[in-house]
Specification:
- It contains 18 helices and no strands.
- The chain is mostly helical.
- It folds into two domains: about 180 residues, MFS general substrate transporter like domains (Growth Hormone, Chain: A); about 190 residues, MFS general substrate transporter like domains (Growth Hormone, Chain: A).
- The longest helix has about 30 residues.
- The protein starts with 7 loop residues before the first helix and ends in a 7-residue tail after the last helix.
- It is found in: Cell membrane.
- Keywords: Cell membrane, Membrane, Transmembrane, Transmembrane helix.
- Its main location: membrane.
- Pfam families: MFS_1 (PF07690).
Length: about 450
Amino acid sequence: MLAVLADRTYRHLFLAQVVALVGTGLATVALGLLAYEIARADAGAVLGTAMAIKMIAYIGVAPVVGAYANRLPRKAFLVAMDVIRCGVALLLPFVDEIWQIYILIFILQSASAGFTPTFQATIPDVLPQEKDYTRALSLSRLAYDLESLVSPVLAAALLGIMNFHWLFSGTAIGFAASALLVLSVTLPRAAASPQQGSIYDKTTRGTRQYLKTPRLRGLLAVTLAAAAASAMVIVNTPVLVRGALGLGQSEVAITLAAFGGGSMLAALLLPRILDRIADRTVMLAAAAAMTIFLTLLTAAWTVSEASRLWPVVLLGWLVLGASYAASITPGGRLLRRSSGTEDRPALFAAQFALSHVCWLIAYPLAGQVGARVGMGAALGASAVLALAGTLVAWRIWPREDPDVVEHDHGDLPPDHPHLREGHAEGAAAHVYVIDELHPDWPRR
């Protein structure tokens, strides 16, 4: 897995991702504690609303960026987004009203909605071989797990010597370091080609292509199940641990670390697993596991005394973390197979936006149900949502999902990107253009 770090450009981008996510992890812990300080018992509802605002920013901004990302200077754009995020992080310690949290979260996440899909679409260009890209996806998953594992542990240590408000300075340092690392490399130029149609056509093109691809519709349903589990963890862990279980700030960080530990374990194992088992099988099994364990946690919360449940919650969060990673990490492979070089930024942006529609459903559900009815009901609602996503994915994702579908190009013009890229790299793009160019072909 670590062999891909021999590529200098990818190594610096990976380090940029790591330091930014460590800072983001500190902000996750600090934001939960800030919400609890301001809103007390309603902190779950505040965090649920804040995360809903985050989703709205992602859904609104990402498609616009995806439509024009191949025309923007990648390095300058990525650095600008990091600078904006750094500035917002420096303002968060001074917040003392709930509405201020909401405004700053919207600005911060709008910048992330520009940065993340552009960053993700750059990696396949840096590592064009699928084997290398698969390893990079697992390393990327490990980087994300630093937000759930290393950052909470670091936060727990820092909270012993300082007020949680100072954790936001670590977030700012992370974004600043990320910007410097991006500046240190030369990024591949995005393939730009004229796009016909209105602004609406351009901004929705990636989404339309995404929704015409059967495997990606399955990916979206699996993402709904993953969102149900992760939303429960992110939104309700502070209230569950501090309120229902009566524990302290450090236990909040440790509980979040259990989720991250499970995710990291899965990320380490996934490259070998995906070499032997189809992506569909791995992802559907992981979605089913999340559904089962959310159901078991609901039952445990119903029949047991809350004060004795912390070990059960730790084990449940560990399993949910492992299942979460296994359900979403292979998604980049599916996107790469379903796009050509010119279409990749738009398709990654579509995945970014559409997947966050799932979180837009899951975050308010977990937060509002937890605040109004209780943690047992929140766990149950999350289990139902995960079950819905799992069943839909199993139904709509074809069992036979070939990378290349045999067909005839017919009368496509010679300069069409489908022909221009050739079958070596562009064959995967054939999957989605089937529906758009040749409606009579079998849809898989």
